[in-house]
Design a protein that fits this description.
By secondary structure, this protein is an alpha+beta fold. It has helices spanning 34-45, 53-69, 127-136, 150-156, 177-188, 198-212, 231-242; strands spanning 2-6, 19-21, 24-28, 81-85, 90-103, 106-118, 142-145, 162-164. The two termini are 25 Å apart.
């Protein structure tokens, strides 16, 4: 599900760095939050077992640092948000990247929303709405997310987010079905030895590729032909291709 929200009819101003409520506070992501956010992401979205988390947390935290805190990408505070509970624990996280668009000659600031998550062990339903409210108080004209699950959608709809049609993005072609099945089994049972499945998966996928992929046949239509073109010729034809 693809969500979009826009703010019209009001002047956008910078939100305060910290927003307090009786449930806790929301503030920009800081370096000291990264490992806690990474641990929450891995347990919430990747279902990692606790004894396998240490190395994954370090790698994920470093990846998040490059995305959300890299000084080469932004100036000032991070656009990503964390919710901190009254006890000081991490309550939730909202990954936000800033982008700029132009519409009818007007420049728009857009928030590209990424991971949106709360600690299920301690959250009482406050982290999600609090993070979205803080985002809405910011200086963004548009807020976009590429996908949202049912829980996120339930938070977003009362805040006037619109659900966009998926069109042609709702399809998947699996190139290596056996390898995908083996990876799913490894995620469910991490202790399962890879040598027990991976060789058979590779052999099956190699056989399936030759057995099930249809050979490319030349077109029987006399109206269709192929020819090589250069960049200038492609640019000349592009408006016709985009006209539909």
């Amino acid at each position: 599900m693809h969500l979009v929200s826009e703010t019209t009819g009001m002047e956008k101003v910078a939100a305060p760095s910290v927003l307090e409520s009786r449930h806790g506070s929301v503030r920009p992501l800081a370096a000291e939050d990264l490992e806690r956010v990474a641990a929450l992401f891995l347990t919430k979205f990747r279902r990692r077992r606790r004894h396998l988390l240490d190395r994954a947390i370090v790698e994920t935290a470093e990846y998040m640092r490059r995305i959300y805190l890299d000084p080469a990408r932004q100036s000032g505070e991070s656009n990503a948000l964390v919710q901190i509970k009254r006890q000081g624990d991490l309550g939730g996280f909202l990954g936000v990247l800033k982008a700029r668009y132009e519409f009818n000659g007007a420049a728009l600031n857009a928030a590209i929303i990424g991971p949106f998550m709360a600690d299920p062990g301690a959250d009482h339903g406050s982290a999600g709405p609090q993070l979205l409210r803080a985002l809405h108080r910011g200086e963004f004209d548009l807020q976009l997310t590429d996908s949202a699950n049912r829980v996120s959608l339930a938070f977003a709809r009362p805040m006037k987010y619109q659900l966009l049609p998926v069109h042609c993005l709702g399809w998947t072609y699996i190139f290596r079905p056996a390898a995908m099945a083996a990876a799913a089994l490894h995620r469910k049972w991490p202790r399962l030895p890879r040598l027990a499945l991976d060789p058979f998966a590779r052999a099956f996928d190699a056989l399936a590729k030759g057995r099930f992929e249809p050979p490319i046949q030349p077109s029987s239509s006399q109206r269709v032909h192929a020819e090589a073109i250069n960049a200038a010729q492609f640019a000349e034809r592009l408006p016709t291709l985009l006209s539909d």
